[in-house]
Amino acid sequence: MVKPTPKLDAAGVDTLLRRAFPQASEHGLPHVLAVEPGRVRLASTYRPDMLRPGGVIAGPTLMSLADTAAYALVLAHIGDQLMVVTSQLNMSFLRGARPGDLQAEAELLRLGRRLAVCDVRIWTESADRLAAQANVTYALPA
């Protein structure tokens, strides 16, 4: 499968996210580290308020990162179209995410006229010890 060419680089997507969500920027919006054809990589700096009882990173934090990674991936490939919206997010929690900076890599499985389907993988320790995996679908503006 030929991967689509990104329209924005990592700095462009990062700037777009911060413009779209200025209130989140001060509370730890993830940073876009890399954009490649069909892929993005994000990092979210660890904060103690991410933890749930039991000392692992909370599920809602992981789900938010998965959604942000998919959003960043779609924006990287379609450009400045902020009205794309999540239409489906299915998350599998694979192991407890130990405290530490979160990493997410999102891959574009399909970019159509109406929908974008993404696979997102999240970890803290290493990419071979995934904490969570999500399938995220975004509806694209007509």
Structure description:
The chain is of the alpha+beta class. The protein has a single domain, classed as Thiol Ester Dehydrase, Chain A, CATH 3.10.129.10. It has three helices and six strands, in the order ααββαββββ. Strands 1-2-4-5-6-3 form a six-stranded antiparallel beta sheet. A hairpin with a 2-residue loop joins strand 1 and strand 2 (39-44). The radius of gyration is 14 Å and the shape is globular. The mean pLDDT is 94.
Describe the structure concisely for a colleague:
It contains 3 helices and 6 strands.
Instruction: State the order of secondary-structure elements, H for helix, E for strand.
Output: HHEEHEEEE
What gyration radius follows from the Cα positions, in whole Å?
Answer: 14 Å
- In terms of DSSP E residues, the strand content is 25-35%
* Count of domains: 1
Named CATH topology: Thiol Ester Dehydrase, Chain A
Report the CATH superfamily. Hotdog Thioesterase
By helix and strand content, what is the structural category? alpha+beta
Alpha plus pi helix count = 3
Please identify the top-level CATH class.
Alpha Beta
The strand order across the widest sheet is 1-2-4-5-6-3
Q: Residue ranges: pLDDT <50 for 5 or more in a row?
A: none
Q: Tell me the total number of β-strands.
A: 6
Our measurement of the CA-to-CA distance between the termini, rounded to an integer number of angstroms, reads: 24 Å
Q: Quick check: average pLDDT?
A: 94
CATH architect. name: Roll
- Looking at the structure, what is the overall shape? globular
**Share of helix, binned:** 10-25%
Outline the biggest β-sheet: 6 strands, antiparallel
